[in-house]
Amino acid sequence: MTLATYRLTRLVVRDDFPPLLWARGKLAGGWGGPAQDVPVYRAGWSPQWLADLVTCPWCASAWVALGVVGGTDTAVAMPVPVLMWLAAWAGGALLASQDWA
Prior knowledge:
Layout: H1 2-13, H2 18-28, E1 30-31, E2 39-40, H3 48-55, H4 57-75, H5 81-96
């Protein structure tokens, strides 16, 4: 669950997959990717907290881990899912926030 949280968090926060890059640009603004030198401006309807959520690996990791643990708990009943959520969140956020990741 930690590795799934890490990979999905990285996909949301940092990867250059075109559909997610476009969505992140509309929600948070920034640059259009490494090959593009054109700035992308945040949409007027996008609040600042949502822009922070999709650019912060620690913040995004919390919600991604909640989804991963919730899905796993639905498929396979886990003991103490809250502790599993905290563990997946911590591990995924630590991996996703590294520069080499």
